[in-house]
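User: Quick sanity check before I run a bigger batch. Here is a single chain. Can you write out its predicted 3D structure?
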Amino acid sequence: MNRADEDEYRQFVSARLEPLRITAYLLCRDWHTADDLVSITIGKLYRHWRRVRRVEHVDAYVRGMLTNAWLDERRRPWRRERSTDELPDRAEPNVPEVVLADRELLLDLLAQLPPRRRAVVVLRFYCDLSVEETARALGISEGTVKSQAARGLESLRALVPMDAGREGA
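Assistant: Done. Predicted structure follows.
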């Protein structure tokens, strides 16, 4: 955006900031959310100012942008949450200590693998990506993914302590 466009944008926003804020408040009935909506709107307006300033009724267009921002916010799932005076009961996680120990052991073993081999093992077996997706993500051939995965699993098996699998048996 050139200097003249930016000055024109600043003048427009400065003149209409408070009316936009009031409009946003009337839509959502919360001053904090209204401020957020105005911020979203003027950010989008800045990105598209060259196109928007050519519109016949800029004020109406910007109010439409504000309304759409409000509607988008209302559609977000986290907006459906409601605060209450009472806290919900806290559920204790039902995770056995052995599982946590196994997780720590796995993280320690993964840390011992070379970086590329670790990346292949994590993407293939933790993120459940296919060979093709893993190759694309890492920018390597499918054959390299297959060989690195095989070598990584072989290395992990060799690194596992002999008594690690016998605790639960």
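The chain has a mean pLDDT of 83.

User: Great, the batch can go ahead then.
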